[in-house]
Fold:
Amino acid sequence: MSGGVIARYDPNPIFGADGTMQMRVLPGVAGFAAAKAAFTKSSRDSLYVSFEYLFRAAPPGTYLTVSLSDNPAAGQDNVLVATLYPPDPAAAPPLPGSVTINPPQYALFSGEFPRGTLDLSVLTYVELRLYGSGQMTELWIDDWDPVDCVQTNCGDIGTPGGVDRTDYLYLLSQVGRSSADPGGPATTDCLDGYSRDGYLDAGDILAFDSVLHDTNLNVCADNGSALAPVDSGGGERVNVPYHSLVIAGKSTATGDDQLNFLRYDESCIGSALPPGPAGNYGQYRGNGRLLSDPAQQLYQVHTHQGIIRLSDVQAIVPPRDCTFAGKRVRVGMRVVGQGVDGIPIADAVFHPTDPNRLYVVPVLVTDAGQTYRAAARLVLTAGGGVCEYPYRIDALYGSRPIAGDGCTNTVPPNLSVCDVSRMREIEIDATGQYLFVTAAKAENNNDWVLCFRENNPTDEKRFLLTALNPQLVGPAGLLYARANADRPESLYVASASNPTANMIANVYRLTIQRSSQGGPVTGLSHTPTADVLAVQGMTQVTSILQRPGDHSLWILGYHAEAVEPNDVEFGFSDPLFTTPALASAAVTDTSAAASDLICQGIGLPLSAALSIRLGDMDCDGAVNVLDINPFIQALVNPAAYAAAHPLCDLGNGDINRDGNVDVLDINPFVALLQGG
Structure:
């Protein structure tokens, strides 16, 4: 070291228990303090390095370098893999690891780095070097360790012998865990091989389905090829019954995807139907979120094929390699040979009044040699050319992480303490003015709702969810709900992190604040004592829906026994062990009871949507003169309409989609009767 001191606090004077390594660069010396540690050997092409850090004194010019080496001597044969700067001390709320956070809180540094030409067959060496600029500089390091996950990036996470259904079952048994649980990243890094967000949740289940959908796929293959145009889907069209709750999930027996249908009284309708398209051996895998357009057509997100319209099983948003404003944009995940390129679309939402405007998340953007995740506005088009058919990119939401943006403190930037790029779900408000995007990374308190002005993507606001409620981590099941007589305009969201076996899953209500009615969004508010809906009989929430008529909620999810890692072995033919569950609640409720969902062999529900036909007031599947009297009844006596038509929804009469059944719906209803 040059002007530096390495010491050990044991016990730690603030945190107690285990000791801490203290790195200091003394005042009056523009030098460094270096520590080089030996870890177990590794034969992998890449390995993870992780440690916790807390800056105690960080004057200008302070930074830390992280290097791999195969030489035990300090400063010898080092390969620089990352540079870490102090987190922004002016950030609000204060960032973990910063000198200003009070009480002190460690930040986690965790990254995967290539071994390159280093020979780590004997030992692996990692060197940390703290640089100062003449003033007292101090950094604490704890839990310094590389994590070696042999084979897991290929999906072979259960019994060795290749990627198969047993690996899928093992991953499913660990859903609800996060790297914030006791044991830290070591509990999830070897399972969270796809999303890399520190949460084991539905996103990992669907990503793993990419392997089982295409049995030729090896996700360890080279992913550097460009995306080529793909086919537009294919398969049997799905005849979705009107006036039903549509549930996308998996068969208990086979694990294949299926669509189930419930009446509004929650009774099962008919047989389960396969979604499209099928895999290379006829298997149905990788089908995720359901969504609808303003005309109430239904679509489903698929990990390989993009976004599929169910009525004709055609891909309206197939994977594409695009260019927008000089940036390379990859929409969706494409199979290239035996590997994959890009990342799957996780969620999408249509503009509330424009069926040709669609917002998807995430996309991969490469700008100035740096790749990051963003949301994209797509315009569906019949034009020609790559990324002009069947859509073109019209806007990007989310910017390239750069030093000085108040969030980025590492090179490469994806290792920063603040990370808002792990986008997972998206909603839009009733007037199409604002987009709400959840982003989550378990490490360093990175659970966010990002709010973008639809027509000005640079107008972005960030709301830290744990600042609203410390339990709201790993946001899942995002729902936007317009204002009604019982609740103001709100977001509903659950937590994907629920490893306990107490059979309670919480749904959190977040009130959207605006400067004036219909004006700019200024914030989110939440009262933990009043704005939490505790759902008994459910451990994981996968989807939240609101009925348009009475504004009540449906909460879809499942329950399963908590399984400790390595406590169970699964067989190839074992069925799914999850039990689907469904709860209903008023928007003002603070508790609800879920009932087990028994319908045509569904074992794991993943998404839900409503199948609606506007104007069909008697729910016979047609809009005709027989709907006139029920429509009038809905206008003048909604309660009587609900009693006379229990399997219908009052929202069928909200023809203009403004959230109310009133005189403004009369002319649109007449137009429907006339075939308009």
Notes: The CA atoms of residues 348 and 360 lie 4 Å apart.
